[in-house]
Amino acid sequence: MNILEKINLQITTFSKSERKVAEVIIDNPEQAIHSSIATLAKIADVSEPTVNRFCRRLDTKGFPDFKLHLAQGLANGTPYVNRHVDESDGPEEYTAKIFESTMASLNSARKSIDISQVNRAVDILTQAKKISFFGLGASASVAQDALNKFFRFNVPVNCFEDIVMQRMNCMNSSEGDVVMLFSHTGRTKQLVEIAEIARQNDATVIGVTSKDSPLAKECNICLSPDVPEDTDLYMPMASRIAQLVIIDVLATGFTLRRGPKFRDNLKKVKDSLRPSRFDKRD
User: Fold this and answer.
1) Which fold is adopted by the domain 3-112?
2) Residue 116: CA atoms inside 13 Å, Cβ hemisphere, count?
3) Which stretches are transmembrane (predicted)?
């Protein structure tokens, strides 16, 4: 049952103010998807807290999460492109839809992430002898971004897209090494095998992947942002952005955990790059 069907089914149970919100959404669901909470409240002639209360009545986590569910319920989108984009959309429509759906997905990911797992991952990374970042397909660029972030942290890091290099790296792993794997679905057989090899050689495996997936079950630590994106049918978009944000979270935790002296080293790295750039005034 999609969110519009739930609204119609439960409309008699809503308060008078909540029913106003429901009627506005039923009359023009596309408008609701692209409205801010303030705009929707004004159209329905209710308060913003009423809109939030209405959203939670439908078992969503708030207005952004509600809009995400509403967008998913309206259409299947364009196969192999994006679930929110229609064939007839022009630049204005598909630009707005991609930004809106990505922001809603990030908010959903933020609320679903397990902070205790983030803390464990930061602990492990700050103590690592060597860190390896691996991903395949769209997640390979995410692994490369992780390499770029952690390369300046004065700890040995590597990143390989070639699966043979990944296997050899894991075969040579040992206790104190960390292997971090990126896969939205967690069903890529080769990455699951990589996780198995790494663990057999006493490395700690951190996965950024779907909860309860085959890959998640092979990881010591799993960070599972809830991003409802079917990458079997659509291009990876919001899921890739969520993975990039998680890298930023871990990199930030790493620098804070290492303390002020460590940040002095980061300043030296930044200073060394200044001669390679034009001055801002140029």
Assistant:
1) Arc Repressor Mutant, subunit A (1.10.10)
2) 0
3) none
pLDDT tens string 215-246: 999 999 999 998 877 666 567 788 899 999 99
- Chain mean pLDDT for the chain: 89
**Please, are residues 173 and 179 in contact by the beta-carbon 8 Å criterion?**
yes
Q: Which residue has the tokens 């979270």?
A: 249
13 phi/psi in degrees, rounded to 5: -95, -10
CATH 3.40.50.10490 fits 115-272, yes or no: yes
**Residue 122 parent element (H or E):** helix 115-126
Quickly tell me which residue has 């200044």 as its tokens: 274
Query: What is the Cα–Cα distance from 31 to 96, expressed in whole angstroms?
Result: 12
The rounded distance, in Å, linking the Cα atoms of 170 and 189 is 16
Distance between CA atoms of 256 and 175, rounded to whole angstroms?
24
Task: Determine contact, residues 221/207, Cβ cutoff 8 Å.
Answer: yes
What are 6-15's pLDDT values in tens digits? 887 788 889 9
Per domain, the residue ranges of the chain are 3-112, 115-272
- pTM of the entire structure? 0.72
Please report the DSSP string for 81-96 in residue order: TBTT--TT--HHHHHH
Q: Is 16 exposed, middle or buried (CB count within 10 Å of its CB: 0-12, 13-18, 19+)?
A: exposed
